[in-house]
Input
Amino acid sequence: MGRYWEIASTWTVILAASIAVWSLAAATLPVPDYFLPPPAAVLSAFVELTAKGMLPMFIGESLRRIVLAALLGLFVGVPIGLALGISHRTAQFAYPVLNFFQSVSGIAWLPLMLIWFGFGERTILIAVNYTVLFPVIFNALLGIRSVPPIYVNALRTLGASRWRIVRDVLVPGALPNIAMGIRLGLAYGWRALIAAEMLVGANGLGFMIFNSQAFHLTARIMLGMGIIGALWVALDYFLLRPIEEATIDRWGMVQR
Amino acid sequence: MTAKITIRGLGHEFVNPFTRERVLALDGVDLEVKEGEFLTVVGPSGCGKTTLLNIVAGLLPKTRGTVLLDGHEVTEPGPDRGVVFQEFAIMPWRTVEKNIAHGLEIQSVPKEERADIVRRFVDLVGLRGFERKYPHELSGGMKQRVAVARTLAANPQVMLMDEPFAAVDSQTRITLQEELNVIAQATRKTILFVTHNVEEAVFLGDRCCVFSGRPGRVKALVPVDIPRERRRWNLLMSDPTFDLAKEKVFGLVREEVGKEI
Output
């Protein structure tokens, strides 16, 4: 309780101080309003866009895209990574290939994708799903390969079948890496999504901040940026962390 | 007594992956472990005693010779040979009771029966109250008790132990040695136990097999004629039979270590 309040009050002070400095800077610096709008302007942009229904719609669109990519990563990426990792031979082959495609981010693919898939939703979805998928597959494979052989041997001497070794040793042993892959994939995917929406979107948070720039609606840009960061922090805190706490933290498999 | 494990002319060669040289780890090992016997293998580090154990476990291939369990050739791992490893090879994602039940799950033992057996072995290794704990919440000694219980619960024909107490502190080691002695007496299991610790080998073994340096061979077999119920550290501190056997084994091991220096 004491510790919680300590953290909460520290953050309140830091936040209040930052807003105060920002307000002061906006009021005193000799720059036009659109260059550095005060916090109050960002707040009123929030109220206005929420009332109009634009902001909830944009947030909803961006979240829909990232959730879709997350589901694909979880139900397609993880199984593919696990399957590739189980055999030493396929893992050796897949490793450099995955490593290569993981590093060519979805953004780098955008020019080619625009030619192939057109200027619209299809390209956004493909770019984001691509960006999420590779780190997820790559880390799931890595997870399987990094399970200590001693666990496998222990189970073999208990008479376990190959399938049981996969189920009881390799998959749970790969979980720390799988969790990391999902976290990394979604973090990269979230960035790629915003960038893709900026370039080809007709809605979403990326579209909102990029489109606002054309009209010098600086408060909206800042609002969008704040929401992009806040949504990720919330996703991480309320979804990813609890999953890790219930599994790999409980098993003592992560050093923090 | 009949031979439970028969090892004849066993040789093992491997290629060092860095130097590409062929290394002869074991050469012409002949050894018999009798039914219900506790046989300890002791020798200098790198003498191939762990290799021997892994071959008997079926985890390593043999280059020459035969390994028989009850007269049947051993080629792969199987539940008839339970292994306790030096590293704590229990699953971090399973609780104590789930780890102990693992072998029984693999054998498809029905749930109620499984719970009974697990309870019995939790008691045998003194882990009551820790059934729901995860391995990272246990001390090294407790983890190794879980590993021993898991192996015994699966009811193997023989138990193979590879320096199981090398990674725990000396106080815990003494306790674990005494506990294992009690377990050996109670279960009458055939046990093949590898160690580099002479005192441990003599304390636990009905016979103590001394290995030569690389390539590993059986150098000598030293019988330790002390009944199980007398094998407690406070009783053996000034026991002439124990001291004599210990000195003998120590001398034999020393010769081998001396050769390498």
Notes: The two ends of chain A are 22 Å apart (CA to CA). Residues 37-251 of chain A form a domain with the MetI-like fold fold (CATH 1.10.3720.10). The mean pLDDT of chain A is 92. Chain A touches chain B through 23 residues (CB under 8 Å).
